[in-house]
Amino acid sequence: MRQKITILGATGSIGVNTLDVISRHTDKYSVFALSGHQKINLLTIQCIEHSPRYAVVIDPESASILRAKLQEAGSDTEVLCGVDALSDVSSHNDVDIVMAAIVGAAGLVPTLSAVNAGKKILLANKEALVMAGGLFMQAVKVSGAVLLPVDSEHNAIFQCLPGASQGLSESGVVRLLLSASGGPFRGLTAEQMIDVTVEQAVAHPNWSMGRKISVDSATLMNKGLELIEACWLFDASPDQIDVIVHPQSIVHSLVQYADGSVIAQLGNPDMRTPIAHALAWPERIDSGVAELDLFDIARLDFTRPDLESFPCLSLASDAARAGMDAPAVLNASNEIAVQAFLDRRIGFTQIAAVVKETLSASIFNEPESLAAVQESDSKARSYAASFILKIER
Ligand code: NDP
Ligand code: MG
Hints:
Helices cover about 45% and strands about 15% of the residues. With about 400 residues, the protein is α/β, with parallel strands linked by helices. The chain has two domains: about 5-150, NAD(P)-binding Rossmann-like Domain (Rossmann fold, 3-Layer(aba) Sandwich), CATH 3.40.50.720; about 150-205 and about 235-310, no CATH class. The strands form two sheets. It has a seven-stranded parallel beta sheet with strand order 4-3-2-1-5-6-7, with helices on both faces. A four-stranded mixed beta sheet has the order 9-8-10-11, covered by helices on one side. Strand 1 (about 5-10), helix 1 and strand 2 form a beta-alpha-beta unit. Magnesium ion (MG) binds near residues 151, 153 and 226.
């Protein structure tokens, strides 16, 4: 029996890489549903190639366009529309695996639907855990869902840990070392980054990714979000995690043990490795990634992050320590600030300023429900948006 997969965010960078891996193993996997948002042409091509039962988009206009294109191509994929439809194809009885690869807060609700339905979830959408980690992990426990990290660093740590159910200290773990490439502006001072352009910010030296996460990698907010993500995934405190800058992006993260051993996972910087690992876990399958040639790489460097030039990392680590809904506020204000930077309304270094200002204007509360998380998220978004109106160029 082939396992049936729903890919949330099929038209994005992770979605495309997931389809690439799946297409190498059509004997093992079949596509149940694909979702997209604005890239309707790409979604049409993906539906023709992979014949999912359902394709999901958000707006009715996109749904009509997609329906017409698929009908013309003779495809029998059914087009659904709206946020509820995303949840339906994530929790459907026939689905075995859900790849959660929508970017940002929009991914939270459908990913939680997959969790509540007890699916095997391949988690790329780190923002869901940052916003609602407590509720998310509790829902995983209750439903018995299998949560596998796709984010390369977390996938690496998962591979370096001994077993799923033991706590870190029971396993003899003293520290998790989270790799960071340092992004395109590694080595620059805050002053030197004032006038960097959108094009420079999204041009990551090692990884090819969507625009939002590329900007997050350039500010190091991505590493901050990943620190929070790691706390939830591995039941770690922020003090048990060190960020290490490793510009070659070959060592994807490491786990340090009480006996002095350090176990690392290495590989070429290609997301198809963690995707294939999570997809086939506990087995191993071919991902299409070239074999790592250490002779060719020759050297691996490690340095400490420059927290002064990249304040987003400290803001995230403070939010992790503050707990409650501070990470949700951090995430929401960052999403608004990154979009304003991509729209060329604010400068690169003002992203951190927006997040800092929103965090300091917020009173944090413990979010007891999804509705409470969504309220913190939307309050922080409006605060950040009005602050941007005051400072925009
Ligand atoms: P992309 O921007 O390339 O893709 C995002 C996907 O989400 C697209 O399919 C997009 O549709 C869809 N989407 C965007 N907005 C909405 C919305 N409001 N409602 C529904 N769907 C929406 O991002 P990535 O693939 O790079 O990243 C996806 C997630 O994975 C992020 O959370 C990121 O942090 C995480 N991640 C990514 C890595 C990478 O290497 N790319 C590595 C580790 C984690 P469309 O394009 O059709 O508009
Ligand atoms: Mg990562």
